[in-house]
């Protein structure tokens, strides 16, 4: 995940006051996608889940 300026090849949308910028071809390949902010005793961060098949033991859902 990185902070970046949007480009013509990006999909840009707002949800609950947060602006998301993602490469259009990548967005098409991972839909549907959910992004949740998690705050737990183990730490806080974003939980990103999609239908994209991830390698290793990720199981299709990654956190960052």
Tell me the CATH superfamily: HesB-like domain
What is the domain tally? 1
Question: How many helices does DSSP assign?
Answer: 1
CATH class descriptor name: Mainly Beta
* Largest pleated sheet: 3 strands, antiparallel
Radius of gyration: 13 Å
The side-by-side strand order for the widest beta sheet comes to 3-4-5
Order of helices and strands: EEHEEE
What's the helical proportion of residues?
A: 10-25%
Secondary-structure-derived class: mainly beta
What value does the average pLDDT take? 79
N-to-C span? 7 Å
Label the CATH architecture. Sandwich
Shape: globular
**What's the quaternary structure here?**
single chain
Stretches where pLDDT is under 50 for at least 5 consecutive residues are 57-64
Structural write-up:
The chain has 64 residues and is mainly beta. The chain has one domain (1-52): Hypothetical Protein Aq_1857, Chain: A (Sandwich). 11% of the residues lie in helices and 48% in strands. The longest helix is centred in the middle third of the chain and has 7 residues, at 24-30. Mean pLDDT is 79; it is low at 57-64.
Indicate the topology:
Layout: E1 10-15, E2 18-23, H1 24-30, E3 33-40, E4 43-50, E5 61-63
Antiparallel strand pairs: 1-2, 3-4, 4-5
In short:
The protein is mainly beta. The protein has 1 helix and 5 strands.
Task: Record keyword descriptors for this entry.
single chain; Hypothetical Protein Aq_1857, Chain: A; 3-stranded antiparallel sheet; 64 residues; mainly beta
